[in-house]
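Justification of resources, computational component.

The compute hours requested in this renewal are based largely on the per-chain cost of generating structure records like the one below. Each record pairs the submitted sequence with a full structure-token output. That output is archived, and it is also reused by downstream analysis tasks.
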Amino acid sequence: MKIIDIECHVLLADDYDASFTSSAQDSLLVVLKTDDGIEGYGESDLNPWIGKACIEAPGTHTMGLSMRDLLLGADISDISDIRAIWEKIYTQTAMNGRRGAVIHALGALEMALWDIAGKAAGKPLHALLGQQRDTPVVPYASLQPAGGSFEAYRDALCASARDAVDLGFKAVKAECTMNGPYAHSGLNESYDRHTEVVAAVRDAIGPEVTLMVDVQYLWRDAETAASVARDWVEFDLYFLETPIWPDFIDEHRKLADMIPIPIASGEWLATRWEFVDLIENGGIGVAQPDVGRVGGITEAQAVCALAQTRGLPVVPHCWKTGVSISATAHLAFARPEIAFIEYLPPQLCLEKLRRELAHEDLVFENGEIAPPTKPGLGVEINWDAVRAYKVA
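The structure output for this chain reads:
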């Protein structure tokens, strides 16, 4: 079974808002086709025009080859071929970029290869990934509010949190970012106001629901971060996500030593090797690989294995459509160290692409997700949405 065609669709919702910090408004959808008539779907969380270029750009020398050219004609008759293909592309595009966008784009290709493998075997992807976990997969509702004022932001977040609990979620994550590089809608609120929002969300969901908080790189140093986060201990947070810019490894370590709340990070990292630094030297308490960005499902598994040897839980990042959500769920059913997965059901999301692009084979009941049963990723693409939102 060989790859005979590669399609890269750049999608952009017709109602996108450039001031809204959400990458779920666009998508890079990759479609791989085989000579057996099987199609595999992949997605990654990066600028889709850049991702498309990373895949389709022609090569100019032996260590800067084209991903498209390397993949066309590749044999994927066995799942071991997937890793061999990944290694070949990683090696022979090394001078195009060993990290960043090139690896993020490679992650979409590898995801599509696994989708093909599952469909060819007639099995759901998680059944190909190894031993199945004997504990349920629990999603958390990932909530990013809208609102151009402090009051609107706080109230929208609390309302979404209550809605999530009413839907049966056992855990929620509040995006609490009214300052810093991810500041929503031009807000510039004090750190005390951030504390007020965290308190309001905890009050809204009650003490029994697991609460996580994402501040999206709000601080640049451990001392400032700790001066605020110490006041959040009383809210019983499962983790504090991305408090510090990911390159500041030393500051991560300092913060980990200064507060009892586990630090979660890793959403932007590419390959297992970047996670080694963040885990070993940064002292994080929760690893957050994004299946597409990290380089694909196999790389995400490697991060899980690394975290397992250190006794750390894994909570994958996922802020895209049902394609990536499905890949993340399948990964979780094969990795017991994954404590939660990020999940935004259509009822709670603002982004049109998340609601319309893909229908995943995921059943959410009683705060848990049942094992998918359809072959491969189990994703059905809405081709009307692809045609409506394709811009390149």
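The chain is about 40% helix and 15% strand. The CA atoms of residues 312 and 342 lie 17 Å apart.
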